[in-house]
Amino acid sequence: MNMAKASKSKSTKSNWKEKSWYTVKAPEIFEFKEVGQIVSSDPENIKNRVIKTNLSSLSSTSFPAALFINVKLRVTDVSSNVANTIFIGHEYLSSYIKSLIKRRRSLIQNVVDLTTADNKKIRLKTICITQFKVSESKKKDIRKIITKKLQEFASSSNFDVFCQEMLFGKLAIKVFNAAKLIAPIKRFEIKKSELFEVF
User: Fold this and answer.
1) How far apart (Å, rounded) are the C-alpha atoms in residues 64 and 47?
2) CA distance 128 to 109
3) With 0-12 CB in 10 A as exposed, 13-18 as middle and 19+ as buried, what is 139?
């Protein structure tokens, strides 16, 4: 047997013996559900790692759109072989968003920076699709009402409540109902969110 290969094989086995498996847990808004496992020789190497998972695997309720939403979590600390995480953002699959956009309708995109009642800062990217094409002034008015409704809800909600309402469609319905008073709306979605993190 080649001694170099034998030495390499022993080294590989030794390295694996030094490593441990860590269970990744979602934050409280997802009922601390298990996301997966990470192997590492040092728990410090896991901290700050970003985990991406589908919302459907975290949801305990029936929400069809969850299949088209990816959630991003960041590992904050490791304790007793459990890696705890926080929610740092979400994004709809681009293929899903493209399927919503039809001809002879207006697409209104918006970027809004918000601060929740517990002082968490988050950026949202939204899309609003009208039933038919509307004027630029209507688009401007729709953007204003979208921003207003999002700011109002954020300022009166803590971060966990805000995220739950946002991810499971309740916040989108509130904004939709406000925007449709300006012009007929086909769809409103919060297509992406991103937490402004402080390290």
Assistant:
1) 32
2) 6
3) buried
pTM for the predicted model, two decimal places = 0.87
Q: Enter the DSSP assignment of 13.
A: H
DSSP 67: G
Whose CA is closest to 87, among 163, 18, 146?
163
State the CATH class of domain 94-195: alpha beta
pLDDT digits (tens, 9 = 90+) for 153-184: 999 999 999 999 999 999 999 999 999 999 99
- Strands of the chain (E only): list them: 20-25, 34-40, 50-54, 69-79, 82-92, 107-115, 121-130, 185-195
Hey, what are 64's tokens? 């069809």
What element of type H or E holds 142?
A: helix 136-155
Q: From CA 174, how far away is CA 161, in angstroms rounded? A: 14
Domain ranges of the chain: 21-92, 94-195
Closest C-alpha among 121, 125, 84 to residue 197: 121
